[in-house]
Amino acid sequence: MVKFVCERFEELLGSILLFVMVSIAFINVITRYCIKMSLSWTEELTVNLFVWVVMLGTSFAFRNNTHLGVTMLHDALPKWARRLCYILFLAISIGFFGTLFYLGVTEVRDEIDLEVTTESLAIPVWWYTIATPAFSLLIIIRILQRAWHDWKNGAL
Fold first, then answer.
1. Which of 3-17, 18-32, 105-119, 140-154 has the least mean pLDDT?
2. Structural domain span for residue 31
């Protein structure tokens, strides 16, 4: 069970978040048309959870090697050049998400220090922005897992 959750973490959490987002958006539509009252907190929650879902989707794409890539030039290269491109891709990807992790931690730390709260729900903003460093770290782990898998299976 633990292995299943670890292997399918992105799908499980993403499904739950999408269910929550659809449910609260539906509730907002119903209340807006039936009782002529909009629930402002639903937009805040939906927009912020959307960022979480995007980060989880990115992690899923790296784990399954289904991210967007243009391979026409890559496939035409000799094997040594494809390996070099793969290593360059790994370095750039890890560098990007490492930077995003660092900046996310800095942002969360600032929001905690400044005690910033959201407008609608009056909860700490860092509850939402903690996803950026946390899921950036998850993405780096998934990139390294994919690289290990590719290396072990001779895809490099």
1. 3-17
2. 2-152
Hunting for tokens 């897992």 — which residue is that? 145
Q: Name the token pair of 33.
A: 């048309």
- What tokens appear for 83 in the block? 């390996």
**What is the value of pTM for the model shown?**
0.87
Q: Which of the pair, 62 or 74, is modelled with greater confidence?
A: 62
What do you get for the CA distance between the two ends of the chain, in Å? 31
pLDDT digits (tens, 9 = 90+) for 14-35: 999 999 999 999 999 999 888 8
Q: Which residues contact 78 (CB under 8 A, 6 or more apart)?
A: none
The neighbouring-strand residues paired with 124 are 117
Cα 117-128-10 angle, rounded to 5 deg: 170
DSSP classification of residue 35? S
Q: What 3-state DSSP class applies to 149? A: helix
In degrees and rounded to multiples of 5, residue 121 shows phi and psi of -95, -10
